[in-house]
Specification:
By secondary structure, the chain is mainly alpha-helical. It has helices at residues 7-21, 25-29, 38-58, 68-91, 111-126, 130-158, 160-168.
């Protein structure tokens, strides 16, 4: 099976499900805070690594085997899809203020990013690709930079409500 096929459920959850649940959900999810200084470089590394990850999967195959790597890959991939779907459903229903801090967001401030990481690590294990895993790590490290900028934006946007949220809920897991 071609590795790119692994992205179809992810894309359906990330874009199709979100657009069906919330008219402005895609716009809110695609919002990037203004980036300055090194943040601009981080933003471009994030975007480029995302594109490279997607394209590289076209050149990889999944071979179904009963190895621990394959089983771990399936587990992470499915867990990531489930976490992603739950994240999207909860993201689609923010409070009137726009702050998401209920549902899965009670446990992680960034469950969508956590789900992306699980899905993409699962993909690298299922395709047994070390280069893909390195791309995923670059993607995730740059995503952390994006998250830090988003947190600054959220503090400016939501003030003490977000600061309180930050003090009670972990960034990832």
């Amino acid at each position: 099976m071609n590795g790119f096929l692994l992205l179809i459920p992810f894309l359906l959850i990330r874009f199709n499900l979100l657009s069906k649940l919330s008219k402005d959900g895609i716009r809110r999810a695609a919002h990037f805070p203004s980036m300055q200084g090194n943040g601009i470089l981080v933003y471009w590394i994030y975007q480029i690594s995302n594109v490279v990850l997607f394209i590289y999967l076209f050149f990889l195959n999944v071979t179904f085997t009963a190895t621990w790597i394959f089983i771990l890959g399936i587990f992470l991939y499915i867990l990531g899809l489930i976490t992603g779907a739950i994240s999207v459903m909860d993201f689609a229903k923010p409070k009137k203020s726009g702050l998401n801090n209920s549902g899965i967001y009670k446990f992680s401030r960034n469950p969508m990013y956590v789900s992306y990481f699980m899905i993409f690590v699962g993909c690298s294990l299922l395709t047994k690709s070390i280069p893909l895993f390195i791309i995923v790590l670059i993607f995730q490290i740059s995503a952390h930079g994006i998250i830090l900028a988003e947190e600054k934006w959220c503090v400016a946007e939501f003030g003490n409500d977000y600061l309180n949220y930050m003090s009670n809920v972990r960034r990832y897991i």
